[in-house]
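Hi Q.,

Before the meeting this afternoon, I wanted you to have the Broken Fe4S4 cluster prediction in hand. No need to reply - just skim if you have a minute. The sequence and ligand are here:
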Amino acid sequence: MEKSIDNATLSAVENAEISGIQTVWDRYAAQLPQCGFGETGLCCRHCMQGPCRISPFGDGPKAGVCGANADVMVSRGISRAVAAGTASHGGHAKHMAHTLLKSAMGEAPDYPIRDEAKLKAVANRIGVNTNKRDMKAIAMDVATKALEDFSEKDSPLVCAATTVTKGRVDTFLKFGVVPTGIDSAIAESMHRTTYGVDSDPVNILLGAIRCALADYAACHMATDIADILFGTPTPVATRANLGVLKKNAVNIALHGHNPLLSDIVAQVADEKGMNDKAKAAGASDGINVVGVCCTGNEIMMRHKIPMATSSVSQETVILTGALDAMVVDYQCIMPSLSGIGECYHTQLITTMPIAKIPKAVHIEFHEATAKESARKIIETAIEAFKKRDPNRVNIPDVSSTAFAGFSTEAIMGALSFVNKEDPLKPLIDNIVAGNIYGVCLFAGCNTVKVTQDANYSAMVKELAKNNVLILATGCASGAFARHGFMTPEATQKYAGPGLKALLNAVGQAAGLGGPLPLVLHMGSCVDNTRAADVAVAVANKLGVDLHMLPVVASAPEPVTEKAVAIGTWAVAAGLPTHLGVVPPVLGSKVVTEVLTSAARDFFGGYFIVEPDPMKAAEKLIAVISERRKGLGLSA
Ligand code: MSK
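Predicted structure with the ligand bound:
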């Protein structure tokens, strides 16, 4: 299997091979064949009488020591993955909410409220009085209400209940999956899946859905507060891929998820004093900040900062020999970065107390002294630059233009150039007329288990050809950005006639002089809720619920537990959701059947597991066709 279809990735990996440096692909090869019990979800380590395992072929024991059968093991395993994903998004969201509170209390001077309109919109939505109140008072109440969503309370989470359709709320109430606290939902999932608690696989899965809806609330909260503190994204043009590194600059990569640190580093990197220091050290182009993974998405859409690469290829940025510092916050950061950094002059810098890596320099980040930390980080990178070996610099000359920053507000803004009074009308009219056949949200990661980016590339071409409007977040965004799919040129090249006409009409009306990009960049992983907001607005306008819309989701290369949580809430929201990698559930017929079929009877959404990208695109088009028929539209 080819490692990647990205020439920049392949070039950097070749550098590694020449230098005898192991990458993620080598470590994957060393793991093969991977454990068949684990791959099918049939191993359990939840107690010390284990580990237990059940053969997926039916030979050997039919249950673990406690009597947990295959259905119990698999449902408990997947439920714990959802809980871990929710804990990650919950931790991120809580960090944002605490910072908003500190900002309101005057304890975080580097975090002023940058988007007052968004603050008021969120406040009005969650029931905070905005009438004649100052921004700090409103922010205090918004942050307090957000933080209340973490512990158990006797009403649904405001960040979820106020952002979905009435029909969804009724469905969630009917099946008893309304979470009453983000942290309490995680705790409940861990409790019910521990030794000797819930052993009904369907009940366990309903618990997982309840936890996944808490994940949705956390994601929405994180996005809302990021917009309040750093501004709601608007479209910007930038570049993506390793070619964005500069030979004559101090190159700093910001990697992870939370914009609290990266946004400040991006601001400080623009300071003249910092650039003068870099130049004095011999970097004639000053400081060059680039992004990796979702932190990369956050700074790309708010600061036009170029994206170097995404998840699976994160090591390649160091392998160019031109990276002076890799600065990480939390999530999706490979521990291997420290060892690879040691093979070069690259300084790995950790910043969060919960995410330290041995041998990295730890510059702990605090909101009260954010700019001070950012300056220290940049000075550390400048010191590392002085140790760079110019003979080892090998930056692949590969990068693509990428337009980023299509927040919900930006999409509505662009549509309002076509119809000021009723911005959704052009979108809905085109869906009804069949010019837009349906909508697909691409989300999720890159994985070593498939050729990097191959699924994304094949699927987007096929769907766009069939007039499916494409939205993207997370490392899916990174893949499309690196391959030039986030450009007007890609629209001209790949869009079917109906899709091309709409993207062109909106782009022209918005004064872009050409069409909108083929793939609309909506942000990081937590920003999947931006896409949900668009779908909810369309559903409300049409007077239908989400499970009736010709809208689908796809994670062609999922990796993390966060992706499991997001996929689960997408299904609960009523979306048919494609996975390009088989999750560890095949050991249980009951779990496989619930996730791929029965979930549809409950929520309207379900998982479609299809590793072949062309077949996956065909299946998604068939689902869209079925939904169109259900709405009485041409199929
Ligand atoms: S960074 S969760 S590898 S999308 Fe959000 Fe990428 Fe997946 Fe992490």
